[in-house]
Amino acid sequence: MADESGLLGTWKMLSWTREVVATGEVTDAMGPDPIGYLSYFPDGRMTAVVVKRDRPQLKGLVPSHDEKAALFDSMLAYSGSYSLKDGRIIHHVEASWNPAWGVSDLIRPFVLQGDKLVIYGAPGVDPATGEEVIYHLEFRKM
To answer: Around 29, how many Cα atoms within 13 Å sit in the side-chain half-sphere?
Structure first.
């Protein structure tokens, strides 16, 4: 199991796929080539933000209600504390773009491979579809 010191710092997302448990279908969770960052700090805090690379363009300076919904659906962000247990990073969500994520911890099995962080077999409910999914995420240390 990796120790906390190997996780410290900021990680740039390389890929994020999701497998639908019911069907086995695998797709990109935030489209191809998402823009994402995951940071772990020495004080036990963490932040995560991911956006689709091809987010909707606004028609003006202030997004309309429809544009806001499209922007919301093309991103995720949360922060809180984290802990390590049995090869898993546990994100204790305290603030999130989706308040439902503050209800329970996000458990993330992981492995460190040099400057690469792989989070695999991470169970979840896709906030856009409500489907039970398994996530696979890859990051490179910045």
So the answer is: 28
- Decide if 54 contacts 34 (C-beta within 8 A): no
Q: What is the pLDDT of residues 9-40, one digit of tens each?
A: 999 999 999 999 999 999 999 999 999 999 99
* C-alpha distances out from residue 82 to 78, 89, 92, 95, 136, Å: 12, 7, 6, 13, 19
Domains present along the chain, CATH in parentheses: 4-141 (2.40.128.280)
**By three-state DSSP, how is residue 131 classified?**
coil
Could you give the CA distance from residue 50 to residue 112 in angstroms, rounded to a whole number? 20
What's the CA gap between 137 and 124, in Å, rounded? Answer: 13
